[in-house]
Structure formats: structure tokens, C-alpha cells
Design goal:
Helix content: 55-70%
Number of strands: 2
Radius of gyration: 15 Å
Strand order of the largest sheet: 1-2
Strand content: under 5%
Shape: globular
Distance between the termini: 29 Å
């Protein structure tokens, strides 16, 4: 069954993403998408890789493709909001993030991190001064 192959590839990609292997995760998620072209989860997962690379435009594209297949996909909606923040399209971002926030509890928690420009992902700290930038975050951190 196509969904089983996609599910296994997504699980493999998730494990690789946790290990920081973005290329491996991306390849696994592409395998999932090839196994099931209608998988909103595979599309969202590819967006997570783009988010980890701070490629906000690509993250938004993958998120929108996932949302087109599954408008209730909380992860994709949060990813779209975060990508839009990264692209400094704040009003659009808030629409997506607000929709995720209003959904019933128990799903993804929306987190927004503003950090000093030039700092790498995961190096945010409170009280940083200077011009902030938005780091791409997703449901898969």
C-alpha cells in the first residue's frame, strides 16, 4: 500500500532530521512523496527541512502545497506562519498562526524566536540587542 511506504519513509526522515542530517531527511521525504503523491505529511516534512535551512520561501511553498491537500494540517499551517514571519509578511503570518492557536489544544505549540542577525539556529538568548531576524521554526525542531 502506498501510504505504508510513505509512512515508513517519513519516519525514517524524521529520525534523520532529529540527527541533523538534512540531506538524508530530505531524500527520505521525497521518497515518501513519490510513494504517495497525495501525502500532506510528506509535503509538510519537506517544508520542515527548508525551514531548518532558513529557506523561508521554499518552506512556505511546501506548507501551502500541504495545506491545499489538507487544510486542517496544523503543522503545515504553523510552518506557513513561521515562513511568512521569516519573509517579513507579518499580517499573513499572524492569520496562519492565529488559526493554529484557535484549534483545539493538544497539537503543535506555535513558537516564534527573534534573534540577533548573524546568530545561528539554536543560539538565541534573551536580551540580545541589535536588528532581530526570525528563525525558521517548525513543528519538527
Amino acid at each position: 500500500m502506498a501510504g505504508d511506504g510513505a509512512s515508513q519513509a517519513i519516519s525514517r526522515g524524521d529520525a534523520l532530521l532529529e540527527q541533523g542530517d538534512l540531506d538524508g531527511a530530505e531524500a527520505a521525504y521525497h521518497q515518501a512523496l513519490a510513494a504517495d503523491p497525495g501525502s500532506a505529511e510528506a509535503l509538510y516534512s519537506l517544508g520542515c527541512v527548508a525551514s531548518h535551512r532558513a529557506d523561508h520561501a521554499a518552506g512556505l511553498d511546501w506548507a501551502r502545497r500541504a495545506i491545499a491537500l489538507d487544510p486542517a494540517h496544523r503543522g503545515a499551517r504553523a510552518l506557513a506562519g513561521n515562513a511568512l514571519l521569516g519573509l517579513e509578511r507579518h499580517a499573513e503570518a499572524l492569520e496562519h498562526l492565529h488559526a493554529v492557536h484557535e484549534d483545539p489544544p493538544g497539537g503543535i505549540h506555535v513558537q516564534i524566536a527573534l534573534c540577533h542577525e548573524g546568530m545561528g539556529a539554536g543560539t538565541c538568548r534573551a536580551g540580545v540587542t541589535g536588528r532581530p531576524r526570525v528563525l525558521g521554526l517548525s513543528g519538527r525542531n
